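Friendly challenge for the regulars: who can give me the structure tokens for this chain first? No prize, just bragging rights.
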Amino acid sequence: MMNFDAQYHPYSSRRSPVYARNGMVATSQPLAAQAGLMILRKGGNAIDAAIATAAALTVVEPSANGIGGDAFALVWTQGKLHGLNSSGAAPQSLSIDALNKAGVHEIPKYGFIPVTVPGAPASWAELSRRFGKLPLKEVLQPAIEYAKNGFPITLGIYWKRAAAIFKSQLKGEQFEEWFRVFAPEGVAPQIGQVWHLPDHAATLQEIADTNAESFYRGELAEKIDRFSKQYGGYIRKEDLAAFNPEWVDPISVNYRGYDVWEIPPNGHGLVALMALNILKGFDFSDRDSIDTYHKQIEAIKLAFADGKKYIADSAKMSVSVEDLLSDAYADERRRLIGKDALLPEPGQPPQGGTVYLCTADSEGNMVSFIQSNYMGFGSGLVVPGTGIALHNRGHNFTLDPKHDNCLEPGKKPYHTIIPGFLTKDGKAVGPFGVMGGFMQPQGHVQMVMNTVDFHLNPQAALDAPRWQWMEGNTVEFEHSTKSHLVEALARKGHDAKWSLGSVSFGRGQIIWRDDENGVLIGGTEPRTDGQVAAW
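First reply, four minutes later:
Bragging rights claimed.
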């Protein structure tokens, strides 16, 4: 190995948009992008490519997602947009009363308590069944080969960070499998090191052979059940057997002639739409102006205040999506934005660590897909002999029984992962997304405005400096943001802070389609190992 630091970047670099006609895959890891491209070249469509890429990401980027996580998708095919919610619910034996009796008064990050039913494998099978061209067994082969034959580590910084956290915080026999699989003797692999995941390969092959039935009603479900029972967990094979992905109607707002689409709650794409609904009442001419930043931040704060109060499993929300997205409510919230920063409070509407990828093909199919284990590797639990890292999405529940998002058996939690899609006049413009927890709606707003208001190409829209509202009046800025803007925003009452790095500002992908000639234009995240693979 040559002597260099893979994470030292002393000079700025520029990427260009990628153009192609036959097909395109954009994601955060080059080997995963190539897996999707391989399936396109074999005759698969954009849906097949999305599944192949997603499965490969569970292998080559396990620090951000896994087989035991959740997934959401927006699929454009035959002139219509379809939404898939493949997020799982709390186990039937998990309740506020059960936790109170166990002396637990706050949902922890790690262990079995925050484990909800994983939905990712079911999403692959369901997308394949409804819209795929190739058999799932063929589509999952690239991921299986990576796991079996080995792959070089690229995103080692996240892996190393997780190993350090888990080494200090995870105590007990139930966590030993995570270290055996991902960090033997507590040491994470190095960038460039070839890593093998044979258990992943076997599990992915089992999912491929059974169209994911084994995961929910077969041998893999039995292994998850046995592991949970052994260590006093709550998830059971009955919870897995009861799970099915849900096809949903996407929700949208019209922003300056473009329809911006998101998955409805339990995800927080609604936050992005509420913010855009507020912002469409202002005129913006300059992206890098104090006024633009100020109004964007204030709109996000107001939208998040409502989102954190009201977003939950859609069947449990006390207000409707339609009320939260009404023009009348947007006008009311917009009037709260003044010259100075405000502390956000939820309104009362009138009653009435993640991976992201996008794909497109020459037939006009396009997919916006996102999946996650949450907080990197998730719960810290790996089902022995399977490579299945169980997610910890239940950490987002509250134990306040009066809150819309309170924990209940069989209920889905507030979810942070959201795919986005843009259309205009009933025609597809394309998929977009920005991964990264509570940064995601903020990233969606910035990507849409960069595109619609400021006419940036897909790559420039991703390259542009980002900001992130944290809480209260605290906002973090990337160092590439012009200093005079940050200083001026501080004078407006924003608690403006420079971020030490760019990890927390999300990792995005964009594919737009030129409706006149069918040309695809892709951009990928410069803050990670993103790649647009095309032909």
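The chain has 19 helices and 21 strands. The mean pLDDT is 94. Your move, everyone else.
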